[in-house]
Amino acid sequence: MKDYFSIWIIPKDDAPPKIFSIERKKLRRALAGVGVLAFLGLFLMGDYVTLLMRRAEINRLRAENARLKNRLLAIQKDSEDLEKKLNLFKDYAKKLNTIAGLESPYALKEVGGVGGGEFTFSPSTPKQRDLDISKISSKLKNLKKAARNLDINFEILYKFFKEQQELLACTPSIWPTRGYLTSVFGYRRDPFTGRRAFHRGIDISAPIGQKVHVTAKGIVVKTGYKPRSLGRYVMVNHGFGFTTVYAHLSRILVRPGQRVKRGDVIGLVGNSGRSTAPHLHYEVRVYGKAVNPLLYILENLGI
After folding, report:
1. How much is the pLDDT for 63?
2. 3 state SS of 211
3. In terms of Cα–Cα distance, which of 37, 173, 38 is closest to 96?
4. Rounded to 5 degrees, what are φ and ψ at 191?
């Protein structure tokens, strides 16, 4: 005889009661199934909670990596800006050393090992991140060393020029006019003959009538007109072996023997003489030998 488990449901009214019977063995099986399902449900719930926690941790790590990446990129940009500024100071120091004739051991030192390719950052590899940080740290270390060398050099230059103020005043060190640099010092193809020829100065393209300024203190030693070469020109002797020449002028505004100081207007840009277009031909000579004027121009803004 089978063993049953009965459930009686007695309504409130006078209706007869409802009786549900289930075999005890089947009830045990049903309860066991419910238990298994409950256990599986709890297991899956725990696994889901663990998954959510791991996802939250991953999101936190991603956010931290993004923050570190932005920080590293900012540090790299700062180091690149510092490198550019140091290079400007380095060029400035080179020119000052050229003017002073100094051979300081710190004068022309290069900023070693501060270059490099494009910056890379891999948030998924801590080893790569450590390598990137190491590269930037090394770069900043080299920049600090370069800055220290430049600081020493500037101290040497400061002491020198403090004692040589007259030399500095007589050294051609500014742009004679503003415009476009169309030809540099050295060998080039002659615009008239097409042959290779040595260019003794620099050419600055500018409109006719623009002011031409003397680049240092001195005395006008010669003015004149050479139709087959310089056209209208002015020559200034600055002392200390320096002479400057300003050619192809449209008008000369000084006379021989006249004393001038840096920045004075001595003429106007023109197209006279052997010239293909309006421009200023500018020369710097040291004891009669033509040198590159760009080595002496200290204005960093260019022309």
Report:
1. 80
2. strand
3. 173
4. -65, -15
